[in-house]
Amino acid sequence: MSRETWLRQLRMAGNDASAVARVLSGGIPDDALQHAGHAVLRCSSSPGLIAVAMTLIESLSQRDWSGDPELIAELEHVRDGTTSELILLAVALDEIGEALDQSSASVSYIDRTDGTVWPGEVFDVDQGPEDFDPDDSDRWLPVVGDGSRTAYAVMERFIATIDSPGLAARLQADINGSGAFRRFQAVLSRHEDEYTRWHRFRDDDRIGRARAWLADHGYRSTR
Questions:
Q1: Is the CB of residue 41 less than 8 Å from the CB of residue 10?
Q2: Residues 12-39, buried b or exposed e (16+ Cβ, 10 A)?
Q3: CA atoms within 13 A on the CB side of 210
Q4: How far, in Å, CA of 88 to CA of 202, rounded?
Q5: How far is CA 185 from the centre of its chain?
Q6: Angle at CA 2, nearest 5°, toward 16 and 74?
Q7: DSSP secondary structure, 145-160, as one string
Q8: What pLDDT does 1 receive?
């Protein structure tokens, strides 16, 4: 089964504990551990998921990407039947991740009342919510972009996982200088398997960074 098909099946399983356990029991790609962990956390606890959670904890401990320690802590609560001290917030991790991937001059905001992430660009054109008040810190949680350095580091880490020395060398050369992201995408798009793997790798990293950021602010996602 391709990793792309695996991820599609995991998404289709939704919050059905039995379906999620069935998908994950067939094996979990190393570059999709955050996806897998998030699927477990969306479900009600079941014996099958506890076993999967234990497997995930072991794999995450060996990988140690950003957000992996926070995911381990959440999965340990599933394993032990305990409750996290983090506050539940119905916010999408991928949306936080996209906000973090923006420039350091970009500031997005999370509405704590419903978990909506308002991207920084809507505020730049005065299209934010009518009742927005940046001084209302009880409601609005700012997300400052990390800038291009973090995204660049993710590309470098991905290149290090490519088996083909020729492709790896070409990509490493192409990410130097202006236009690095465009050249990286253009070259990689001609290698379908690696292109698919890149998107999964990038998204798993993005979810993890979002999870770590959210935990640092005292929250965990329910979406």
A1: no
A2: ebeeebebbbebbeeebbebbbbbbbbb
A3: 28
A4: 25
A5: 19
A6: 40
A7: ---HHHHHHHHHHHHT
A8: 46
d(CA 223, CA 216): 18
DSSP 3-state of 141: strand
Conformation bin of residue 106: beta by default, left when phi > 0, alpha when psi is -120 to 50? beta
Among 152, 208, 220, 212, residue whose Cα is nearest residue 30:
208
Q: Could you give the CA distance from residue 129 to residue 80 in angstroms, rounded to a whole number?
A: 41
Q: Any bridge partners for residue 117, and if so which? A: 110
Residues 6+ apart with CB under 8 A from 131: none
Taking phi over 0 as left and psi of -120 to 50 as alpha, with beta for the rest, 88 belongs to beta
Whole-angstrom Cα distance, residue 87 to residue 219?
5
Query: Quick one: tokens of 165?
Result: 């020395």
The structural domains of the chain, with segments of one domain joined by +, span 3-84, 86-223
What pLDDT digit, counting tens, does each position of 128-139 carry? Answer: 898 999 899 999
Q: At what angle do helices 192-216 and 148-159 cross, to 10 degrees?
A: 130
End-to-end CA distance of the chain: 26
Q: Note the pLDDT tens digit of each residue in 149-183.
A: 888 899 999 999 999 999 999 999 988 888 888 99
Structure tokens at 206: 């993005």
